[in-house]
Amino acid sequence: MGSGASAEMKPAQVSEASVEDLAAALGGLSAEERNKIQDALAALNQGPPCPGPVDCSSLSVVAKDYNGLLPQPAEPKFKGALCQIYVRGQPYGGSDKSSNGHRYDSIPFANGMIGAGMSCQLIHYVQEEHDKFFEVCKNFDFIIVRCNPGQIKADGGDQGKFDTSMKLIRKAGIQVWPSPDVMEKMGAKDALCKVATMNIGLEDTLAYYSEEDFATGFKKTMAFQPRVIKQNRGSSGEGIWIIKLKAGNYCATFGERSCEGDEVLTLFEANDNHEEEHTVAEFIEFCVNGRNDKSGTWTSKGVGKYLEGGKDAGGQIVDQRFCPRIVEGELRYNQIGDAVVGIIHKKPKEGGISAVGGTGSIYTYYEADEPKFASLTENFLKTDLPLIMPALGLAEEPVPLWWTTDFILASPEGTATADEKWIVGEFNCSCVGISKCLAAYCKDDSPNATYDDISAEDKAEANKYGTLMGTKALGIMEASKK
Q: What domain range is 14 assigned to?
């Protein structure tokens, strides 16, 4: 204790003391002693670490509190966990964190499971405790993985090591949403090739895994019509190119001719809608070997090398027909299991082609039952959705709990709404965020953001999603135990 007389207040006197008396007593303590008292009060307020039926005491407690989390059921139907990661070298623990160390949208996920009669404990993966972490995981019936791509590596860990251990958890019969296999196969751009013959696909969608196949195939498809070339590893539109022949000299039938290396291409990159001109040979060189004397000068933020590491390391390029009506916008279907919960129409800014966030695109939000998209919704849910997981080599896996599908309009202008063909641009189940919770994540102008900063209206919407997730998860768990 500090040496001041005011620091000698006895515990029995606290209840009779005024606020001024308590302040005077605390004023007699050193800064270190006052900090200890603050930490002790915080510990009392947060309750036990990682509350729930599974003993997690062997793991480091990363969270400061569990604000907003419902009480765990005394006798849960199934025991679950939500796995997060706090990136210690990044501001706020990563760009998706609330000030208490949880991911900003973890509470609706966990509360949805709890509301369905299951427990859901909020745990953090700390790479130095890898073995202990996965020993604890063996005691759960399901695990919801909410680690953003790149964060495990950013915290000094090994994503491959994490995925291998999580695959073993899945192999042991414990449900993982999404499993590493589901994330990899749904997120890979060649998923578009595997659904090419469905209503939501284009039959002339090709995938390349070697330089020779890419050079030969691209020269042939490019000579026939404008194309979209997509790398596998990029995000937010980086490495997705809309490409046209500058001379416009397309052949009348596919395979009639192939482009020469010196033909000039006009390229637009989807991440920022910027335009470049390069020859066919320069573009192929950039995609394969990156920036060098043969590929010319590039203004793209990317580095190319899309085939680097080979197929097993995710090196691939997808070649798809360009659908010119993309300038009218694309649709994002937000999905919980096999249910659509909302539709977003994303329209590029005037003169642009890509509707990636941050490019000036305009977003319009619709309910899941929006009449103008009723034909697409019904056909997708009833006809194609049951076929997607088997087509991707995931027949034994359920569709993800929380995921999105982006659609592009492929029909020519004048097509009746009921007859329109919408094709998949991509699937995403890799830590999709709940946008209604964005007020809870920390950034420079809100470094202390918490769950309480979410408006009541947005909390209600997020909790609605969580409730449906809990219902879907319970159904999957009960079916798996039969």
A: 5-46
